[in-house]
Amino acid sequence: MIEKRVKELAEFLRGQLENDVPELVITGVKDLVTAGPQDASFAVPPYVERCHESRAGVLIIGPKDTPATDRPLIRVDNPRAAFAALLALFHPPVEIERVISPLAFVSPEAKLGKNVAVQAFAFIEAGAEIGDDCVIYPSVYVGRNVKIGAGSTLYPNVTIREDCVIGRRVILQAGAVIGGDGFGYTNEADGSHKKIAQVGNVVIEDDVEIGNNSCVDRATTKSTVVGKGSKLDNLVHLGHNDVVGKNCLFCGHVGISGSVTIGDNCVFAGQAATVGHITIGDNCIFGGRTGIIGNVAANSQMAGFPAQPYKEWLRHEAALRKVGELLKRVKELEKEVERLKNI
After folding, report:
1. Tens digit of pLDDT for each residue in 302-317?
2. Between β-strands 111-112 and 129-130, what pairing exists: parallel, antiparallel or unpaired?
3. Which residues face 187 on adjacent strands?
4. Which of 91, 240, 277, 316 is flagged as catalytic?
5. What is the tens place of the pLDDT at every residue in 188-199?
6. Is 237 one of the annotated active-site residues of the chain?
7. Phi, psi (5° rounding) for residue 13?
8. Which CATH code is given to the segment(s) 158-306?
9. Do the Cβ atoms of 82 and 59 come closer than 8 Å?
10. CATH of 4-90, one of 3.40.1390.10, 1.25.40.80, 3.30.70.20, 1.10.246.130
């Protein structure tokens, strides 16, 4: 168990300590509701006003927040980031034994770096190159000529098809599929669909995380690209030939059709989706279930189907809620008109 004094936590977070209790020992990190006297927690508005209801031993808050409590406080510029840092401090990663399991298959023609773990039933094909400090969990498949950068982690049942390139410190959660065939067919005269060979690859840049059972399809001839620092939630699909910029966020069930180019720092909320062959600029935000059917300029905020500016969508939604009452009034007016006709 990790134990820290409040003063030690303040120094670790480079925060300003108030109301110190020197004898208080902190042993964990929890949310405001479940935290106990030996836990640290954090609050941002509007929850700062409820801090006094929490049992947390120490609270992490912003520099100008004013909670109604006299317990220890640590003021930092970004309470959420500080909370994340404490979670990592009190819950360090489980140490994985850096060995090659005798139950794994590693081709003699594969190259493994230093300090690599390959667990039972993983299968690593010829020509694959795995960098230093990587962890390969059970039942992972690494295809021919795949390259994986140093410090990457592949959780159980990940599949990386041939010729794909994975950057450094990439995390692929369980069941992710990188480099499956893109959805490409020709329509034949008899109505059948003939497969188009997908001979490109996928390039995942550094510090990307891809969630459970998400899929990134290989390009037809070039590369499907996921830019540095981007994060995909569970059950996300990126189609073939897509090019995603840096530091993008894709929430659960997002679907991006093929040949879409997405700029840096874009956010797609749950179940947002696009048509193919469009371009989306930098710094765009799309609300949940947004249907994106055309090019989008940089710095746009959109929602609805079809996608429209966010504030415009809010006005439309507010108006739709009045339709039922308007219909009722129209029917009443029709009755009144009919009555007047009969006078």
Report:
1. 999 999 999 999 898 8
2. parallel
3. 193
4. 240
5. 999 999 999 999
6. no
7. -90, -5
8. 2.160.10.10
9. no
10. 3.40.1390.10
